[in-house]
Inverse folding.
């Protein structure tokens, strides 16, 4: 199991985005995703797409290194 700088960076960025998304939901009325305004929802889904791409990249690195 090799934990290189790329995996650390990706894990850090994934968590950073996760916290941003959680904060966005907390700031909406009743903390509900469907109560976001259009601009907030677009930003939220953009973050979700970025996070998903990073998770895919991290998974590939982990598979290549035999971590999974």
């Amino acid at each position: 199991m090799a934990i290189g700088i790329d995996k650390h960076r990706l894990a850090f960025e994934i968590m950073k985005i996760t916290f941003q998304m959680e904060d966005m939901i907390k700031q909406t009325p009743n903390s509900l995703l469907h109560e976001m305004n259009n601009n907030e929802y677009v930003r939220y889904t953009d973050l979700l797409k970025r996070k998903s791409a990073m998770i895919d990249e991290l998974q590939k690195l982990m598979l290549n290194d035999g971590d999974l």
Summary: Residues 59 and 68 are 8 Å apart (CA to CA). DSSP finds two helices and no strands in the chain. The chain has one domain: 5-64. The chain has a mean pLDDT of 93.
